[in-house]
Design a protein that fits this description.
This protein has 137 residues and is mainly beta. The chain has helices at residues 60-63, 116-124, and strands spanning 26-28, 33-39, 41-44, 80-82, 90-91, 96-100, 105-110, 114-115, 130-132.
């Protein structure tokens, strides 16, 4: 995710690489609500499966790529993990569930039908729980 220049936490927003859901990641109903099992904010559990543009520049050596790809790394990104949450089907809060879809990809989806704005607010409310992650450790 894109890191905030002020405190280093993830930037909240409805864009790719932000803490939030961007258009197309979740299906919105006609009444402005979203449901479970209709998508959510994408998460990954395996760093080496991420495109280089999603990796922070500090992981260039870890990724094991040669110098011609160094420009692909994004100096504005950071890898974050949701503190205290294992990669498994688990509730994250009363409003959110982590749902692995594949070994390395899953979504954080609403736990019940709710307004899209309430879902976005629930994702934003997790901001303090996302901590910088170091896959080399």
């Amino acid at each position: 995710m894109i890191k905030d220049g002020q405190d280093g936490g993830p930037v909240i927003g409805a864009k790719r690489d932000h803490l939030g859901v961007y258009p197309g990641e979740i299906t919105k109903n006609v009444d402005g609500t979203v449901d479970t099992s209709n998508g959510g904010m994408s998460v990954n559990s395996v760093v080496k499966r991420l495109p280089l543009s999603k990796l922070p520049a500090r992981l260039q050596d870890f990724a094991g790529v040669n110098e011609k790809y160094t420009g692909a790394f994004n100096p504005k990104t950071e890898l974050y993990a949701l503190e205290g949450v294992e990669y498994a089907s688990v509730p994250i809060s009363a409003e959110l569930n982590l749902v692995p879809q594949k070994r390395s990809h899953g979504v954080i989806e609403p736990s019940r039908r709710m307004l899209l704005t309430d879902y976005e607010d629930a994702l934003a409310a997790t901001r303090e729980r996302w901590v910088a992650s170091d896959p080399t450790e």
